[in-house]
NADH dehydrogenase subunit 1
Amino acid sequence: MFLMDIMISFILMVLLLICVLVGVA
C-alpha cells in the first residue's frame, strides 16, 4: 500500500512537470 502511494504521487508529479514544460514551450 505504502509503495503504491509513492508510485501514484510520483506519477502525478511527473505529469504536472510535463504539463508545465509543455506550457512553457
Q: What stands out?
A: The mean pLDDT is 93. The CA atoms of residues 5 and 14 lie 14 Å apart.
